[in-house]
């Protein structure tokens, strides 16, 4: 009975293989080239041409093998990788899918894993090229990534130490990195981190930096901290730096009051932003202080009438008015963008628009504000995990 089933599949393969090539836009020939020696040498010649970058010659060798013996799955696998390199994505998908079916029948998990790896990489390259050319919208691009991640999961399930002779740089580490980048592209950062084990992280160039991260809030109440150096892949620690007191041109840090010690809930967005709890969801520390207005010289980004609360890290002002008159003033948080900046102007002073005559140096103003300021230690890399370098030959 098993022999009959095996014979049945061979007949199907022989019948449908020419149709497969026809669907891929290839003209098949029943004539074996006169220089053909044997299947092993012809298959090896195909992979040699592939690794040399001669994809048209590689394709001819693989087709010759497939026409001679329809059960040699590696010939179709070679065609899949070759078509992928030639940007013929539909043909590559057809060949890889055929390899998966044939390798399953033959019980060849190694070859099956390689075909799934080809489908994974094919989908990612197709996503990148389609996005750059405008042929794919955001939804279509994400669908390709999600499908590719499923293929990659199959690779790791079939062969946890996956590697290929034909593309030695595309091994299990590259698969995991590309899976991480796929999730990263969809802004699913926690999912991305699941694939970055110690072996992966040790294979890329990382720096560990500690920097002050100041918060900003937008009109929707989102609270965002920008990492100065960027390129963050993992935050190691976050400590509160909101107790900075400004005294003249000097600044010093005081211990955070016990009632203000909190768990810092955040997640990474992109490679240079930390997103903290929304203003509506978390009661950030706030103060109401009476401060004296002063003048900032014009060479500091236009200068103007300023106020400086005793705590730095301002990211939202609720109100500001003259201490003897409860009239709301127009203002904005001052972020100097030129240097050198004296220490006391390190971050977030408030600039008052001169809408009233009493907005002048020496007058006292009441300011109500929210503040929070962090020291963040994180791991970073110049380009996220150098993943683009791994696949630049494919793009």
Task: Write up this protein.
The protein is α+β, with helices and mostly antiparallel strands and 395 residues long. The protein has three domains: 2-200, Tetratricopeptide repeat domain (Serine Threonine Protein Phosphatase 5, Tetratricopeptide repeat); 207-282, no CATH class; 286-371. Helices cover 39% and strands 22% of the residues. The protein has helices at 2-23, 39-51, 55-68, 73-85, 89-106, 109-133, 138-158, 172-185, 189-193, 198-201, 387-391; strands spanning 207-217, 223-226, 232-240, 244-247, 250-253, 266-269, 273-276, 286-292, 294-296, 304-307, 314-322, 331-334, 349-352, 364-371, 373-380. Strands 3-15-1-2-7-6 form a six-stranded antiparallel beta sheet. A hairpin with a 2-residue loop joins strand 4 (244-247) and strand 5 (250-253). Helix 4 runs parallel beside helix 6 (109-133).
Q: Strand order across the biggest sheet?
A: 3-15-1-2-7-6
User: Helical proportion?
Assistant: 25-40%
How many E-type strands?
15
The helix/strand order is: HHHHHHHHHHEEEEEEEEEEEEEEEH
| Span of the ends, CA to CA | 48 Å
CATH top level assignment of the largest domain: Mainly Alpha
Largest sheet: 6 strands, antiparallel
CATH-derived architecture of the largest domain: Alpha Horseshoe
Class based on secondary structure composition and strand pairing:
alpha+beta
The CATH H-level homologous superfamily of the largest domain: Tetratricopeptide repeat domain
Beta-strand content bin: 15-25%
CATH topology of the largest domain: Serine Threonine Protein Phosphatase 5, Tetratricopeptide repeat
How would the global form be characterised? elongated
Overall structural domain count: 3
Indicate the radius of gyration in whole angstroms: 31 Å
**Poorly predicted segments:** 1-34, 248-262, 387-395
Average predicted local confidence, pLDDT: 78
């Amino acid at each position: 009975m098993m022999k009959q089933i095996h014979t049945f599949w061979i007949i199907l393969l022989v019948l449908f293989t020419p149709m497969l090539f026809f669907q891929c836009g290839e003209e098949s020939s029943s004539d074996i080239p006169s220089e053909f020696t044997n299947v092993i040498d012809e298959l090896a010649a195909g992979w040699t041409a592939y690794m040399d970058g001669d994809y048209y010659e590689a394709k001819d060798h693989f087709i010759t093998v497939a026409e001679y013996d329809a059960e040699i799955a590696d010939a179709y696998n070679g065609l899949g990788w070759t078509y992928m390199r030639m940007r013929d994505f539909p043909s590559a998908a057809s060949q890889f899918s055929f390899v998966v079916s044939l390798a399953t029948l033959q019980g060849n998990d190694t070859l099956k894993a390689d075909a799934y790896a080809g489908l994974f990489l094919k989908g990612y390259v197709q996503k990148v090229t389609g996005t750059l050319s405008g042929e794919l919208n955001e939804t279509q691009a994400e669908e390709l990534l999600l499908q590719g991640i499923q293929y990659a999961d199959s690779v790791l399930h079939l062969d946890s130490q996956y590697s290929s002779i034909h593309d030695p740089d595309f091994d299990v580490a590259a698969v995991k990195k590309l899976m991480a980048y796929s999730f990263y592209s969809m802004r699913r950062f926690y999912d991305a981190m699941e694939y970055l084990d110690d072996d992966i992280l040790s294979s890329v160039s990382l720096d560990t930096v500690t920097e002050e991260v100041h918060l900003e809030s937008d009109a929707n109440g989102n609270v965002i901290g920008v990492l100065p150096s960027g390129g963050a892949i993992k935050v190691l620690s976050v400590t509160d730096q909101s107790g900075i007191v400004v005294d003249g041109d000097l600044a010093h840090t005081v211990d955070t009051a016990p009632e203000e010690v909190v768990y810092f809930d955040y997640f990474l967005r992109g490679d240079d932003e930390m997103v903290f709890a929304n203003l509506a969801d978390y009661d950030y520390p706030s103060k109401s202080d009476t401060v004296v207005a002063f003048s900032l010289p014009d060479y500091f980004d236009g200068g103007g009438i300023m106020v400086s609360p005793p705590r730095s890290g301002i990211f939202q002002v609720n109100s500001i008015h003259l201490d003897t008159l409860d009239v709301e003033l127009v203002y904005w948080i001052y972020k100097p963008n030129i240097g050198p900046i004296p220490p006391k102007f390190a971050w977030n002073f408030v600039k008052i628009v001169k809408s009233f005559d009493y907005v002048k140096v020496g007058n006292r103003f009441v300011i109500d504000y929210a503040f929070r300021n962090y020291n963040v230690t994180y791991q970073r890399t110049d380009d996220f995990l150098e993943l683009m370098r791994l696949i630049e030959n494919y793009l």
